[in-house]
Amino acid sequence: MRAVVSDVMGDEIDELIDEVIVDAYGEDEQLWAFRQAFEEECVFPFAGRVVGTDVLVDSIDYSGEERRGLVAHCRRDSQLHTVSLLDVTPSPPAHRQTRRLLDAYRRWSRVDPLPPLQLVSVPTWHYPAFAGTGIAIPAARLALCPRGDWDPSHEYWGEPDEPLPALLIDVIEAGVRPSFEMEQVLPGVDEDDWDSDPIVEAVELHHAGLQRDAIRVLNDLLAIDRRCVDAWAHLGLIAFEARGPGPARELYEVGVAVAEASLPSGFNGVLPRGYIDNRPFLRCLHGLALCAWRRRQWDDAAAMFEARVWLDPTGSLDAIACLDQVRTRQRWTRS
Predict the structure, then answer these.
(1) Phi and psi based region of residue 70 (left: phi greater than 0; alpha: psi -120 to 50; beta: remaining)
(2) Residue ranges in the chain modelled with pLDDT below 50
(3) How far apart are CA 331 and CA 328, in angstroms?
């Protein structure tokens, strides 16, 4: 075994290797570093195969034998086995960080990479229709905070005898995906002073029928920082109710574009509504889909409602209800 990283530099696996073995000198120290990384970040147990046999991997260890490297403690039925970690192939669905660590260890060990996992296809986020509204999208991005893996087996999907929509079945079968919380920009507000939240103030003004005052508060936020996605969401709602889907679409679309610009290319993770800072983006996306539905842009509306479900599976029952009506070409009606 050689403690040398791949000559192909610059991808996320090389970056992970560098992160794991930083300050570790020599093969023995680097093996201990990998063992520590697996202990802290790997999700146990995980399913795998060893020489064609299904096993569950309970832990990964290093005994100090450099020639053998890391070992996996596995069980099959009631029998326990210890094998080289390089002999283990993970079975889908695999947690993202577990798979990344396995890929990193194999590359560090100079052995062939694992075969790609055969998973249900997860659509990647893409909303290309931002044609420009005359409002510039800020160059600064919103931060994405990792929130661990989203595991559909840990979610409540109703009673066993209740049929699930086909789209939710696809989401569940796609397996474990990484979840994130998107940064919410609320300019001019101290994190410890939520009593002065201008979004709440604007909502209260809107509910009181003081639309101009609500719009002023929201525009004041955007004058400070145009990345305030929640301001775009509430401006879109006010416009939708007062002036219709055309003006509302322009506002919702800017909010979606700001959030989309902050997602990595090929993003296929989850942005659960349970993390409250994801809600502004989800509001904008839902509002934009409603605008397309109201304008009878059936395909666009369906694509956006489907995206809502994939981004926030357990919080998108409203999107599924709308999607059913869009697919059957039912006209939008105010509920």
Answers:
(1) beta
(2) 1-10, 118-119, 128-133
(3) 9
Q: What are the beta bridge partners of residue 84?
A: 71
User: What DSSP character marks residue 264?
Assistant: P
In contact, 307 and 323? CB cutoff 8 Å? no
pTM: 0.64
Tokens of 101: 């660590």
Q: Can you tell me which residue has the tokens 């909502």?
A: 203
Distance CA 173, CA 166 (A): 11
Q: Which amino acid is at 8?
A: V
Q: Measured between alpha carbons, how far is 162 from 164 in angstroms, rounded to an integer?
A: 6
Q: Which domains, ranges and CATH numbers included, belong to the chain?
A: 12-108 (no CATH), 144-327 (1.25.40.10)
- What is the rounded CA–CA span in Å between residue 22 and residue 241? 56
User: What are the backbone angles phi and psi of residue 119, rounded to the nearest 5°?
Assistant: -110, 160
Both structure tokens of 332: 């939008």
At 53, list the tokens: 């046999």
